[in-house]
Specification:
alpha/beta, UDP-n-acetylglucosamine1-carboxyvinyl-transferase, Chain, 2 domains, 4-stranded mixed sheet, 31% helix
């Protein structure tokens, strides 16, 4: 669709609950001393995977839409599962669950889908084995399927993480619940602190208190991106989590000259949230690196997508972590943008996108390779490209944002038709 044919996006909507906080609410709720009422829980496949694992170990979880009642079994109540624990596509589920399993005196096998089975687990296994986890079997020493055995008690450690990673930090902190002494994690830059905030809310050992999960900023980001791409758009996204360790994307948008207003701030169980009002305006290129890349890591493919229509180049650096996500997101993002006619230079730790708001795009050919963020970025580019874009692997979006297409349509987006989204 050509720019003159685009319909501005207008309206107010909500996004699914933050899946990072959702994972932690289920896991720590399961380790609590009573019933934990969780509201706003995401309905995507990743949070469902965490729920299924806990249920397989004897935790009763009653779900009704976005609400859940987690019948906590305490630190000593998990039971050995009858079969392998399937984490699906969720790296957070596998890595954080390893921290909990390190403190369980039984043997467990963790498996995942083809994508997750290519993601390295050594970075989490190293500190956990120092604490007492035994790795009985792992493909090539680092990949799932993983067969592990925990113990009680674990040894407390002071761990200097070589990279800033909330998954590493959280796995060690969860294992620390079962350790004797003080467990300390230091990292080279601040990563997401949802685990710290939730432990501060629930205490150690975790006690039964209600948890409200705010809207997922990573999901909201894609709706914001749609409004920033389509001229004349003006949308409001209600109740979005604005944890400072997650708002790197908002800081990048500010540097690009975007119009994003925060309204109605609140805080629940230590997590801040607000309504985000996004209005279309011209964007300019910028440079993203260092600590800002860490805080915006999951949204960097979207930053690259927005950079396609910005004035001048956008440089993304210090983002090597993107290469070991659900896919090599540096390579896949570059391929996706090039298919629409956008020049991209790929680097070991990032990319340079040569933006031009006047560039004539072409219909794209996107293979998401099972990566939901690449599929969503391709869908957004299709909003401003001529008809004919084809996206393979779009079903992966269900892992995090199953209502993505419906949300876009609710504010007036015209999506590629039927068979174009595979």
């Amino acid at each position: 669709m050509q720019a003159g044919e685009m319909t501005p996006l207008r309206g107010e909507l909500r996004v699914p609950g933050d899946k990072s906080i959702g994972h932690r609410s289920l896991m720590l709720g399961a380790l609590a001393d009573g019933i934990v009422e969780v509201s706003g829980l995401g309905t995507g496949e990743d949070n469902r995977a965490t729920q299924a694992l806990l249920e397989a170990m004897g935790v009763r979880i009653e779900r009704s839409g976005t609400d859940a009642r987690v019948h906590g079994v305490g630190l000593d109540g998990l039971r050995p599962p009858e079969g392998a624990l399937d984490c699906g596509n969720s790296g957070t589920t596998m890595r954080l669950m390893l921290g909990i399993l390190a403190g369980q005196p039984f043997e467990v096998t963790l498996i995942g889908d083809a994508s997750l089975s290519r993601r390295p687990m050594r970075r989490v296994l190293d500190p956990l084995t120092r604490m007492g986890l035994t790795v009985l079997d792992a493909r090539e020493g680092t990949f799932a399927p993983l067969r592990v055995r925990g113990r009680r008690p674990l040894s407390a450690i002071a761990y200097d993480s070589p990279i800033a990673s909330a998954q590493i930090k959280s796995a060690v902190m969860l294992a620390g619940l079962f350790a004797e002494g003080e467990t300390v994690v230091r990292e080279p830059a601040p990563s997401r602190d949802h685990t710290e905030r939730m432990l501060a809310w629930l205490g150690r050992p975790p006690r039964a208190r209600p948890i409200r999960v705010p809207g997922d900023l990573s999901s909201a980001a894609f709706l914001m991106g749609a409004a920033l791409l389509v001229p004349g758009s003006d949308i409001t996204i209600a109740g979005v989590g604005t944890n400072p360790t997650r708002t790197g994307f908002l800081d990048v948008l500010d540097a690009m000259g975007a119009s994003v207003e925060r309204r109605a701030p609140r805080e629940d169980n230590g997590e801040p949230s607000c309504d985000l009002v996004v209005r279309h305006r011209p964007l300019r290129g910028t440079t993203v690196g260092g600590e800002l890349s860490v805080r915006a890591i999951d949204e960097l493919p979207l930053v690259a997508t927005l950079a396609a229509i910005a004035e001048g180049p956008t440089r993304i650096r210090d983002a090597e972590e993107l290469r070991v996500k659900e896919s090599d997101r540096i390579a896949r993002t570059a391929q996706m943008l090039r298919s629409f006619g956008v020049p991209v230079d790929e680097h070991p730790d990032g990319m340079t996108i040569h933006g031009d708001p006047e560039r004539a795009l072409r219909a794209g050919r996107v293979d998401a390779h099972g990566d939901h963020r690449i599929a969503m970025c391709g869908t957004l580019m299709a909003l401003i490209a001529p008809p004919g874009t084809r996206i393979e692997g779009g079903e992966s979006i269900a892992s995090s944002f199953p209502s993505f297409h419906a949300s876009l349509e609710a504010v007036g987006a015209r999506l590629p038709g039927g068979g174009d989204l595979e």
